[in-house]
Specification:
Blueprint: H1 2-22, H2 29-42, H3 44-47, H4 71-74, H5 79-88, H6 108-122
Helix pairs in contact: 2-6, 5-6
This protein binds heme C.
Heme C binds next to helix 3 and helix 5.
Length: about 130
Amino acid sequence: MVMKKGIWSLLALTMALSAAAVMPAYATDDELGNAENNYRLYCTSCHGPNGDGKGELAEMMEVPPRDHTDASKMSKRTDEQLFMTISEGGEATGFNSCMPPHNTILQKEDIRSMVKYLRKLCKCNYTK
Ligand code: HEC
């Protein structure tokens, strides 16, 4: 009896794991939740708690931190550009170096979900 139960829970675990493996890479609410947390930890000091560019450190920046709720600007960027700026920093994509690189503190998957989160903040997608 105990043995049988063991097999069933093993089977359940295997199924849960394979279900996780086929989930889309960054579209789940879980991952967005994570991004929101990361945003609060790593981005709001400059970009503001609401993402509107009014963080505590904003005044110390040479150029104002991007207002991530500004769809007119944010819709001009591809997801790849946003990814690159977050990962490699502003200088890598022609922006000011006040925007720091995050590739040593955030995993690639986290940066991908962060791009999703930015799309949620601006309520926009890339439209040229
Ligand atoms: C130390 C302050 C600072 C921190 C921390 C910071 N940023 Fe920035 N960020 C800036 C500034 C300043 C700019 C504007 C650079 C420019 O316009 O040349 C910017 C620009 C950007 C851009 C480019 C916007 C565009 O128009 O393409 C993105 C994307 C961005 N930040 C995302 C983030 C994310 C996500 C985080 C957190 C992981 C973050 N930033 C953390 C200061 C910061």
